[in-house]
Structures are given as structure tokens and as C-alpha cells.
């Protein structure tokens, strides 16, 4: 983690910009660590000034290189109405020239280090450290390029963004547009009259002119994109250059800068892109531990395939439901819900779809898959077709049975409900990501008398499914379905790894609860137990 | 086999690992990578939209051609699609030739969305209230101890969420107007939260497990068959 700090103790005092005349305050006179900017003598006491050595600026850890962390120790006395001012400049000389930006920070628990344990840890110092995050590019924003004018277009030609031919075309269209603008009536004309006049004045464009206007709009869009990229680069450049900071305390109209020997302290820092988000170290560690457990058990399962997995009623019922639909000579309906193909629950449901489609093909039962997302439709068609082929029934696949029904949430509900009522399926599988449509669909399905098996990881929708469906797969059961149905040892091994992870989490929760309970019940020497859980560095 | 299995699995592995790593890397390159991948995703999604539209129209065309039961509804799919596509394309042509203003032609596309699509969606959504009542009625029948506990909890929570709880609570609990609200809060914050977090923990671990299965190619059934 790069830390670039240069407290500059030998700087000449900038006494203040012309707009802020210096008047030695009472506090400044008695305290060599302050320099004052004030119109009138204030009441800031020496103990209200942050300690000189505590004022510091460093690159903000774990960020993309856009910010700097300025920190200082909370003073012993923070009188009511006091605020901290951070003056930011692009060079030391800019302070003297008065070319700096001031950011005001008000005392509150939000600016204390305790709110950012990833930067300041959880020790006692955190509660005594104040901080502010400064983005130099926001305080000194690069100039935004102006609209497309003749001069700008010529400048783009000079930069070789446009060719001679493109410049000629663009200037011609621009001239036409300017001419049209000059012909429009001023805003002071009454609206009714304006509408009437505008109608007669709006020129009819020829097809060639329309084509040129379209080309010009595309050119504008491309230039806008280039401008945005240039602005991003410029912001990065500004952030990568050194920034200089001064800290002060403000009360009413008096500002006292943190100083040494009467000289305001200037610290310097550069914002640099970081390679790791340290605040997510615990997430990474736990993820790697769980991944290792899963991979280990997959390997163990490969050698010893006899793994016991508890029965999941909802998955046991899949074959029963398909069998019932076959006996009743009714179709099986598979509803994905509203998730996209990137949703874990939809991926899990696609795994189950393969199994259901395979069984339906074996039983010569029609399967209808209702999709809301075009990508899920494409993947579902592939999965069903492959399943039918592997079941020895390629003819059982009908692309119209695995179709996009609607891409809007409630249009989807209306369409699927209608199909349920018209076709009276024997079994309905509602597996995937569901929102408000869960109860609408499951109640309609329930009214048709079909066996309903539902499953989702949207825990807010689970109560609706539990209420209206015969079987419900809750959260992780949905993810486990594919392994459970296939009985493939390596997949079952991953489930065992998942269970070990769950046991680990349960032990940690129980141990943490016990430790905190003991620490809370017994004061004094037992408090170290509490610290054990809280201290992170 | 290489084209159908090996290459897709390699792509899944590479993209999966990159997506995992970028979550922990704040460097701008990481953000650029995500932007790039999401652009690819959008391009693929654009093609998939064509496939989805084709799939939808083909299904309804087959229904009309075979005169299947209620085939008349399928005609409305074509009418709706033609109306929205037609007005959308017309708007696009108009907007490129002249800017929007008081003299702009009537926007049939927005009209169709605002006065047909949105009210129809709201109508479907409103049915939820009735379905919720019927589902609640089925659930709250005290057939056994668990259902009885659920019934009692539900009554407390429902009462705690409505204004009548205060006078009722004052009358039932010797002047304590907040008793039912407090009981509601206890039910929501403890038993309800415990169950919710239990499910969430299971989901988080299940997600890791499933991701590993997919990344390592152990899970392939999403590619069609291959249990």
C-alpha cells in the first residue's frame, strides 16, 4: 500500500489570500501550532486544534486511484459550531497565490475512523481519528469540451479525428442547422401564434438531407464518446499528480490552520490505483476456505462414491409429478420466472429442466417451458433438445413448446396464467427467480389441480410458494437439485462440502454468541474476549 | 465434442475466474474488464432478443394456423407487435429528420405504452390482493400445532401493522398501547430474522458450491443433458 506523505514543516506561512486577511487570534498568539485566518478574533481554544503530527494525507487504500484520505486526530475539545476546513491545492505555491479549494467537514460520528475499520482498524485510535476522502479530480475538474461548432470541428480535423471529407460534410450540416435555428421565432411570440408560424416555417427535408442529418447525429455521438474517454484520462492524470493539503479549524468567521512554529503545515499525497480491496480480505478468505472444502469433497467423492445425502421431498416428487401428468395425458409445464441467465437460481433451474425434459421425453409427455428472458429461452431450447436426444426421443422436441412468452413481468403472468387455465397441465414446475409473479402464478396453477413443485432463492417469495404449492425447494435445495437428481458422485461430493461449510458457519455463530455472552456477563478481565472478536488490525 | 463441450467449458472457467478476481481488484483495469464483458453480454443479448421474438411469433403463428383452442388471442399478439414496431420505427424516422417540439406528430408509441401496457400490467398486479387473501385463508387454518403457531403469529403481526392495534392493545393490556406493536417487532426481529438469515446463509454456501461445480465443469447439465 503506497503511502506518500510529506509534512512540510519549513514552509513559509501563507498568510492568507487577499480575501482572507490575517489577524493573529488570541489562540494563535498563545499556541505555536496554529496560524490564523480570520476577520475577527475568535474563541477557538488551543485544545480545539488537531495535534500537528496527526495531520496526514495518504492514498486511499483499496480504491481505483481516484481519492486521497486526509486524516487528523480528534482534538480534545470540539466546541459547538466548530468545523474542519481542508484546503486543497495543486502545488505549494498555489496556497500563496490563493489558488486552492476549501472543503468543509463538520464534526459527526460519520467522519470518525470507527466508520471505516478497513482503513483504521477497530482499536481505540479509530474513535479518536477524523478523516475526509478527497478526490482531486472532483475539486479541480478538467474542462468539458463544448458543443460541436465550426471551430471545434476544425480542431477535431487538426487532431486527425475527422478527415477532410468528413469535416466538409459536418460543416455543411452544421450550417443548415444554424440557418434553421436563425429562422425560428423568438420565445416571446405567443405559443399559439408560434405553433402556427413554426408549422409553415419548418423546412421539409429531402431524403439526402435526412441521411446527412443521421450521419451528423452519429458523428456527434462518436465525438461525445471520445470526449468522455478523454475526460476519464484527464481525471486520472489529475488524480495521479501530487495534491497539497492544509487543515484548519473554523468557528464562525475565524479559521485557524494547523501549523508548526507559526507556519501552516502542508502535506502532500498522490492518489494511486490499488490492486486489492483490503476491506474484502475476509470475504476472500472465507470464499477460498469454502471452495477448498467443496473441491476436497469432490475429490473424496471420486474415490469413495458412496455418499449419503438426506432426502429432499421436493426433488423426490419430480418423477411422481411427471408420472401423474403422463397418466392424466396432460402436459408438464416448466416456469422459469423472471431472472436472467446470469441469475444463480435460473442456472440451477436450467439444470433441473434438463432432468425434467429427459423424464418427460421418456414418458412421451409434452413439456412446455415458459420463458421471460430471450437468453434463457435460447438456453432452455438447447437444454430440452439435448435432453430429448439423450433420452432417445429427438422427435419429442418442439421448439414452439419452449418459447419466449413475454418479456414484461405482468404480461408474462397474464400469458402463463392463460396457458395454465387453457391447457390444464398435470404438473407445474416453478423453479427460478420470482418476484411478485410467484403468488399470481402459483394460485392460478393451484386452481387447475396440477401438482406444483416450486423453488426459488427469493426468500420473500418462499412463503407464497409454501402456501400454494405441493412441494417447495428452499434456497440451497434448489441449487442442490441437479446433484441430487443426477446422483453423480462428484456432484454429491460438492453437496457434502457445502454441508461442511454450513457446519463451520454454525460453529462460528455459536462460538461467537457464547464468547460475547460471557464477555457481557463478566466484566473486567473477560473483556479481552470481546476484543478478540472485534480487533482486526 | 471440442466445439460443443471443451471450448464452452474453457470459456466458462476463464470468465468465471476473471469475474471472481475482479471483485477483489479495485484497479481501473478491473472496471474496464467488467465493462468489456458486459458489452459482450449486451451484444449476445441483442441477438437473443431476435431469437426470442422469432420464437414468440412462430409459436403464435402455429396456433393460428392450426386453429388451436383460443387461437384468437394469438391474433392480438401480431396486432400489438405490428402496432408497437410500426409506431416505434415511425418515431425513429421522425426524430432523425426533425427535433421534438410543439409541432411534433402525435406519439402513438408512448400512447400505446402509457394507456394500454401500463394499465394492463397494473390490472394483473391488482389481482394479487385477492390471491393473497385466498392464500392466507388456506394457510391460517389451524390444522396442527405448527399451523396454530403460524396463525397466532400472523394475527399478532397483522394487528401490529394497523392503527387499531393501539386502542386494542390499551384495552387488552391494561393501558399499554404499544404491547401488540412490541410483540410484532419481537416476532419480526427474532424468529423471522433467524429463519431469513438461515436461508440466506444456505443460499450463499449453495451459490459457492454451484459456482465451483460449474467452473470445474462438474456441472454441465445447463448445457443440455449430460447429467
Which helices and strands, and how do they pair?
The complex is a heterodimer of chains A (537) and B (227).
Chain A: H1 26-30, E1 34-38, E2 56-59, E3 68-73, E4 82-89, H2 92-96, E5 101-105, H3 117-120, H4 124-127, E6 129-134, H5 136-139, H6 150-158, H7 164-183, H8 191-201, H9 207-240, E7 243-251, E8 254-260, E9 263-264, E10 267-269, H10 281-303, H11 313-327, E11 332-337, H12 344-362, E12 367-371, H13 374-390, E13 402-404, H14 409-423, E14 427-433, H15 437-448, E15 451-456, H16 462-468, E16 471-474, H17 476-486, H18 489-521, H19 527-534
Helix pairs in contact in A: 6-7, 7-9, 10-18, 12-13, 12-17, 14-15, 17-18, 18-19
Chain B: H1 2-22, H2 28-65, H3 72-97, H4 108-139, H5 145-160, H6 165-172, H7 179-189, H8 191-215
Helix pairs in contact in B: 2-3, 3-4, 5-7, 7-8
Describe the structure.
The complex is a heterodimer of chains A (537) and B (227). Chain A is of the alpha/beta class and 537 residues long. Chain A has helices at residues 26-30, 92-96, 117-120, 124-127, 136-139, 150-158, 164-183, 191-201, 207-240, 281-303, 313-327, 344-362, 374-390, 409-423, 437-448, 462-468, 476-486, 489-521, 527-534; strands at residues 34-38, 56-59, 68-73, 82-89, 101-105, 129-134, 243-251, 254-260, 263-264, 267-269, 332-337, 367-371, 402-404, 427-433, 451-456, 471-474. Chain A has three domains: 1-184 and 208-275, no CATH class; 280-305 and 491-531, no CATH class; 313-485, Rossmann fold, CATH 3.40.50. Chain A has 19 helices and 16 strands. In chain A, strands 1, 4, 5, 7, 8, 9 and 10 form a seven-stranded antiparallel beta sheet that branches. In chain A, strand 14 (427-433), helix 15 (437-448) and strand 15 form a beta-alpha-beta unit. The model of chain A is unreliable at 1-33 and 191-200 (pLDDT under 50). Chain B has helices at residues 2-22, 28-65, 72-97, 108-139, 145-160, 165-172, 179-189, 191-215. Chain B is built from eight helices and no strands. Chain B has a domain at 140-219. At the A-B interface, helix 8, helix 9, helix 10, helix 12 and helix 13 of A face helix 2, helix 3, helix 4 and helix 8 of B.
Amino acid at each position: 500500500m503506497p503511502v506518500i506523505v510529506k509534512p512540510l514543516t519549513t514552509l513559509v506561512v501563507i498568510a492568507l489570500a487577499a480575501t482572507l486577511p490575517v489577524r493573529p487570534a488570541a489562540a494563535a498568539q498563545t499556541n505555536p501550532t496554529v496560524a490564523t485566518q480570520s476577520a475577527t478574533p475568535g474563541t477557538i481554544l488551543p485544545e480545539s486544534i488537531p495535534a500537528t503530527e496527526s495531520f496526514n494525507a495518504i492514498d486511499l487504500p483499496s480504491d481505483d486511484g481516484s481519492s486521497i484520505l486526509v486524516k487528523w486526530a480528534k482534538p480534545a475539545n470540539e466546541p459547538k459550531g466548530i468545523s474542519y476546513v481542508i484546503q486543497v491545492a495543486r502545488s505549494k505555491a498555489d496556497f500563496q497565490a490563493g489558488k486552492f479549494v476549501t472543503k468543509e467537514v463538520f464534526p459527526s460520528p460519520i467522519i470518525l475512523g470507527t466508520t471505516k475499520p478497513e482503513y483504521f482498524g477497530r482499536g481505540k485510535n479509530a474513535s479518536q481519528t477524523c478523516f475526509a476522502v478527497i478526490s482531486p479530480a472532483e475539486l479541480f475538474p478538467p474542462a468539458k469540451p463544448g458543443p460541436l461548432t465550426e471551430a471545434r470541428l476544425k480542431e477535431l480535423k487538426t487532431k486527425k479525428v475527422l478527415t477532410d471529407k468528413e469535416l466538409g460534410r459536418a460543416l455543411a450540416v452544421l450550417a443548415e442547422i444554424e440557418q434553421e435555428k436563425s429562422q425560428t421565432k423568438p420565445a416571446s411570440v405567443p405559443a399559439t401564434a408560434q405553433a402556427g408560424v413554426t408549422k409553415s416555417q419548418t423546412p421539409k427535408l429531402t431524403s439526402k438531407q435526412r441521411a446527412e442529418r443521421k450521419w451528423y447525429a452519429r458523428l456527434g455521438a462518436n465525438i461525445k464518446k471520445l470526449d468522455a474517454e478523454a475526460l476519464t484520462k484527464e481525471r486520472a492524470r489529475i488524480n495521479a499528480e501530487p495534491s497539497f493539503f492544509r487543515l484548519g479549524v473554523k468557528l464562525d468567521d475565524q479559521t485557524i490552520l494547523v501549523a508548526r512554529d507559526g507556519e501552516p503545515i502542508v502535506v502532500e499525497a498522490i492518489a494511486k490505483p490499488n490492486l486489492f480491496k483490503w476491506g474484502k480480505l475476509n470475504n476472500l478468505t472465507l470464499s477460498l476456505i469454502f471452495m477448498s472444502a467443496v473441491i476436497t469433497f469432490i475429490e473424496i467423492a471420486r474415490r469413495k462414491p458412496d455418499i449419503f445425502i438426506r432426502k429432499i421431498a421436493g426433488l423426490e416428487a419430480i418423477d411422481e409429478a411427471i408420472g401423474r401428468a403422463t397418466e392424466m395425458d396432460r402436459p408438464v409445464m416448466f416456469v422459469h420466472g423472471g431472472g436472467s441467465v446470469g441469475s444463480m437460481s435460473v442456472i440451477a433451474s436450467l439444470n433441473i429442466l434438463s432432468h425434467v425434459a429427459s423424464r418427460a421425453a421418456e414418458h412421451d409427455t409434452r413439456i412446455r417451458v415458459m420463458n421471460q428472458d430471450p437468453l434463457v429461452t435460447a438456453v432452455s431450447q438447447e437444454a430440452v433438445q439435448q435432453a430429448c436426444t439423450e433420452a432417445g426421443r429427438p422427435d419429442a422436441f418442439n421448439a414452439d413448446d419452449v418459447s419466449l412468452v413475454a418479456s414484461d413481468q405482468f404480461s408474462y403472468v397474464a400469458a402463463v396464467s392463460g396457458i395454465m387455465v387453457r391447457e390444464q397441465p398435470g404438473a407445474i414446475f416453478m423453479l427460478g427467480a420470482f418476484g411478485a409473479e410467484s403468488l399470481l402464478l402459483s394460485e392460478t396453477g393451484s386452481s387447475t389441480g396440477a401438482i406444483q413443485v416450486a423453488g426459488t432463492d427469493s426468500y420473500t417469495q418462499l412463503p407464497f410458494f409454501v402456501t400454494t404449492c405441493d412441494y417447495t425447494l428452499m434456497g440451497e435445495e434448489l441449487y442442490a437439485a441437479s446433484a441430487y437428481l443426477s446422483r453423480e458422485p462428484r456432484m454429491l461430493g460438492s453437496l457434502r462440502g457445502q454441508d461442511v461449510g454450513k457446519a463451520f458457519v454454525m460453529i462460528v455463530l455459536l462460538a461467537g454468541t457464547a464468547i460475547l455472552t460471557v464477555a457481557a456477563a463478566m466484566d473486567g478481565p473477560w473483556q479481552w474476549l470481546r476484543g478478540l472478536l472485534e480487533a482486526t488490525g | 465434442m471440442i466445439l460443443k463441450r471443451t471450448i464452452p467449458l474453457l470459456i466458462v472457467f476463464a470468465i468465471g475466474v476473471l469475474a471472481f478476481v475482479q471483485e477483489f481488484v479495485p484497479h481501473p483495469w478491473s472496471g474496464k474488464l467488467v465493462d468489456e464483458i458486459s458489452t459482450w453480454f449486451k451484444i449476445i443479448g441483442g441477438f437473443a432478443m431476435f431469437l426470442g421474438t422469432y420464437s414468440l411469433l412462430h409459436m403464435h403463428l402455429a396456433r393460428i394456423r392450426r386453429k388451436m383452442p383460443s387461437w384468437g388471442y394469438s391474433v392480438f399478439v401480431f396486432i400489438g407487435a405490428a402496432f408497437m414496431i410500426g409506431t416505434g420505427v415511425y418515431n425513429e424516422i421522425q426524430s432523425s429528420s426533425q427535433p421534438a417540439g410543439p409541432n411534433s406528430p402525435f406519439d402513438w408509441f408512448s400512447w400505446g405504452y402509457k394507456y394500454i401496457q401500463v394499465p394492463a400490467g397494473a390490472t394483473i398486479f391488482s389481482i394479487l390482493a385477492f390471491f393473497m387473501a385466498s392464500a392466507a385463508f388456506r394457510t391460517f387454518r389451524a390444522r396442527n400445532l405448527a399451523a396454530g403457531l403460524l396463525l397466532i403469529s400472523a394475527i399478532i403481526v397483522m394487528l401490529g401493522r394497523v392503527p387499531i392495534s393501539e386502542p386494542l392493545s390499551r384495552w387488552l393490556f391494561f393501558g399499554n398501547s404499544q404491547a401488540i406493536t412490541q410483540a410484532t417487532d419481537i416476532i419480526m426481529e427474532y424468529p423471522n430474522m433467524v429463519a431469513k438469515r438461515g436461508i440466506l446463509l444456505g443460499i450463499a454456501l449453495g451459490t459457492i458450491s454451484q459456482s465451483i461445480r460449474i467452473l470445474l465443469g462438474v456441472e454441465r447439465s445447463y448445457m443440455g443433458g449430460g447429467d
